[in-house]
Amino acid sequence: MHNKKTSNNKNTSAFGTDHMTKKEDFKIKASSALIGLATIFLVLSSNISQADEAYFNANVVPQLAQHTCATCHVGQYIRPRVFEYRELLPYLAMGTARDNNVLIAKMTNARHLLPDVASHPGGQKCSSKDVEPCATFMKWWDEEFKK
Ligand code: HEC
Fold it and tell me: What's the whole-model pTM score?
């Protein structure tokens, strides 16, 4: 009887301590795992995009400025914010080739289901894919994807 009680008490307190330790252990492990993940993410994302973003800023942005995209795409009103690398990139990335992607299709007013509806609501921006700013968009595609 006496023994059983003692051992019960022991178990309870042992469980209590054990529980706390495990919880704290988990907290420490979880937070170091998070820090590890965050570091990996930061390293990856900076390695992947830094050079390409610099290319975008040096080569694509001047073309956007020259072709008056800012008239409509600056500020909060009309998305995407085309001067932001991460906002314009998805349009370039959707497609299969330098001259077959959503950005080129919109800018040349190609491929709309309804022929009388503009593919880009802001109008056709390249009379053909080989003139600016589309020529630069195709070079940008090479920079991003032809590696
Ligand atoms: C006359 C105003 C105007 C100009 C100038 C203009 N756009 Fe737009 N653009 C729009 C509007 C309006 C939309 C549609 C926004 C929406 O659907 O919310 C749009 C949408 C877009 C989209 C997204 C298309 C989609 O279907 O989601 C891209 C990419 C884009 N414009 C790129 C450009 C680029 C690059 C330039 C300069 C070469 C430019 N635009 C110039 C008005 C303009």
Answer: 0.74
Along the 147 residues of the chain, how does pLDDT read in single tens digits?
444 444 444 444 445 455 556 666 666 666 666 666 565 555 555 555 789 999 999 999 999 999 999 999 987 789 999 999 999 999 999 999 999 999 999 999 987 777 777 789 899 999 999 999 999 999 999 999 987
Identify the domain containing residue 131 by its residue range. 2-145
What is the residue with the minimal CA distance to atom 34 of ligand 1?
69
Cβ(125) – ligand 1 distance below 6 Å:
yes
Q: Is 78 exposed, middle or buried (0-12, 13-18, 19+ CB in 10 A)?
A: middle
The three-state secondary structure class of 95 is strand
| Strand, coil or helix: 129 | coil
Residue 102 CA, ligand 1 centroid: distance in Å: 12
Closest CA to 98 of 54, 53, 130, 61: 130
Regarding the beta carbon of 71 and ligand 1, being less than 6 Å apart is answered yes
- The β-bridge partners of 97 are 100
Q: Based on the structure, what is the number of domains in the chain?
A: 1
Residue ID of nearest Cα to ligand 1 atom 36:
69
